[in-house]
Amino acid sequence: MTQIELLQVGAYPDWDEARLDAHFRVHRYFEASDRAAFLAGHGAEIRAIATRGELGADRALISALPKLEIISVYGVGYDAVDLAAARERGIRVTNTPDVLTKDVADLAVAMMLAQARGVIGAERWARSGDWARRGAFRLTSQVHGKRAGILGLGGIGFEVARRLAGFDMEIAYSSRSPKEKAAESWRFVADPVALAERSDFLFVTLAASAETRHIVGRRVIEALGPQGMLINVSRASNIDETALLDALESGALGAAALDVFEGEPNLDPRFGALDNVLLQPHHASGTVETRKAMGQLVFDNLSAHFAGRPLPTPVL
Ligand code: 8YV
Fold first, then answer.
1. Residue 75 near ligand 1, beta carbon < 6 Å
2. Residue of minimum CA distance from atom 5 in ligand 1
3. N or C: which end of the chain has fewer CB within 10 A?
4. Ligand 1: does its nearest atom lie under 6 Å from the Cβ of 235?
């Protein structure tokens, strides 16, 4: 399949780029200085897109590629792919589920621990000499035994909950309906506001869609309250970011730990001025092992498609 033309929407680790280069004629869209000119010149030949979860492929891009057959997403979330536009043209869409679930759960728990126990500030305290100069670091907040709310008990939410059980936390979750896989002691709370009210830590682990946009709005944030912490490892669109910033600034919400942002990688400058928020660069799946498995799946889906074999992880 050497001459199949592939549009690569964002960068991948070298090993993935090398594998794609060995099997496709790869066009690095993200390196093009004039993307419109690039599409006008090469769009007609492109048969595959390789993209990333947060970059997706919108209707305008899909429309500019008349021979497009498949969009392979490096990520579990495909909310940035215009599925309606793909469906209209019978374009296949794949993602990389399962392989990243446990890494994302690990980072969500790490963010909770780091933020509650002040790990970043304490590290700075020790490193800068403040410890010797100014004495002991401020007291922090206990984690074990507290109440956790999981908004969205899919694979990632489930793995977060399982980990929190090891911290003797009281676990509740919201999802469309009670889940059979939930442990007996995990309480189902349908309403996100009610879930936030009974939580010290609220984890947002929902797959994003138009329906879940701003599901964490002012009411949920205020219900979590001045002692509460919001942890988001899903998509920024699940949270009303302006309401979140307002609440962090006013103290209506105690703290947040966020891996995803509106307009990322450019962050709202209001975040930079806050000391009650922990910021991560959309890196929850960012381990060598998981990224290798994701890249392999991106490739396996593309190669299965062009060999006429069933797709390993189809979305559409
Ligand atoms: C990104 C993600 O794809 O899985 C998802 O939906 O957003 C991430 O894993 C990853 O950061 C690569 O860009």
1. yes
2. 75
3. N
4. no
What CATH number has the domain spanning 5-99+289-307? Answer: 3.40.50.720
Which residue CA neighbors atom 12 of ligand 1 most closely? 52
* pLDDT given at position 48: 98
CATH: 2.60.40.10, 3.30.43.10, 3.40.50.720, 3.10.180.10. Which one for 101-279?
Answer: 3.40.50.720
- Predicted TM-score (pTM) of the model is 0.96
Q: From residue 64, how far is each of 28, 81, 233 by CA, in Å? A: 16, 14, 32
Please determine whether the domains at 5-99+289-307 and 101-279 fall in the same fold group of CATH. yes
Distance CA 256, CA 291 (A): 26
Read off the pLDDT of residues 155-171 as tens digits, 9 standing for 90 and up. Answer: 999 999 999 999 999 99
Ligand 1 center to 96 CA (angstroms): 9
76 pocket-lining for ligand 1 (C-beta < 6 Å): yes
Pocket test for ligand 1, best of 9, 30, 73, 76 (most atoms within 8 A of CB): 76
Contact 174, 152 (CB under 8 A): yes
- Rounded Cα gap, residues 260 and 283, in angstroms: 9
